[in-house]
Amino acid sequence: MRAPHRPPPRREVIPPHPQHAIRALTHDFPSEICGWGAHPEYEIHLITKSHGSFIAGDHVGTFAPGHVSIMGPNLPHDWVSDLPPGEVAVDRDAVIQFTDEWIRGCTDLIPELLEVEDVLRESSRGLVFSGQTAWRAAEVILDVTRTHGAEQVSHFFRLLTLFARSPREEREVVASEWLGRPTDSNSLNAVEAGLAYIFENLTGDIRLATAARLAYMSEPTFSKYFKSATGTTFSAMVKKLRIAHARRLLDSTDHAIAQVAAMSGYHNMANFNRQFLAEVGTTPTTYRKLESSQKPPPEVFSLGLRARS
């Protein structure tokens, strides 16, 4: 039995603790804090048990025990385990969260930490580790969740060092380049307003005029800055994310194809089938029947931009 449908991404609010620089915890799946969401903190994430699918921005992949990643600020993400009805994966997730302001402050005071800059930058598109790096990082992540005070912080910096010194072949940037941070303030405003609007209305009616109004821009101005930052038009972005969401639903639920279409914002089956085929290279019905190893890789339905190695 696949995991139940989850709502479009929500903004997760993580209250700071005045006596802790980082937040470290473990939690079960299913859990109230699980779900497709985004928050302004960096999140280092370890899966300790179960198999399933995960989404980071417009990337959909699979996970198994030992899956280690770091998600940058405001990057929507989720991990959904394939579990029988009523089963709970106890302590499935080990999570470490910290703010950009805090880590930048640490870097200002401790120049040696500059070596983690590339990891922080790449995490804005989701960074997944493999091989010996993931194996070693899993142990350190658990050390962070099991300790307190100065000992916990020392394990945390050991973890960042491990990430920073990992071989290039053991780290993969997964989401498309549009999820990075545009340097132009107008482009940044257009992307932030546009993406927030899309994510909040993924299953409903989405209009360029509304997105432009939320960015306090005219439609032509919004369209220009949005495309300059993302490399694609606003309408194409809506389609990409809706099809990515549909693929996730096909992977993680038993909903009928028509229901998946509606949950992804498509109310015309012919249009849904046509758009899915164009993006993924196969129809929704055929896609669902494929084994995981046979399914088209995420690049097929990404924005046509490949992560730089």
From TrEMBL:
Keywords: DNA-binding, Transcription, Transcription regulation. Residues 192-290 form the HTH araC/xylS-type domain. Residues 287-309 are annotated as: Disordered. One of its GO terms (molecular function) is DNA-binding transcription factor activity. Pfam families: HTH_18. It comes from Phycicoccus avicenniae. InterPro entries: Homeodomain-like_sf, HTH-like, HTH_AraC, HTH_AraC-typ_CS. PANTHER family: ARAC-FAMILY TRANSCRIPTIONAL REGULATOR, TRANSCRIPTIONAL REGULATOR MTLR. This is AraC family transcriptional regulator. It comes from the Bacteria.
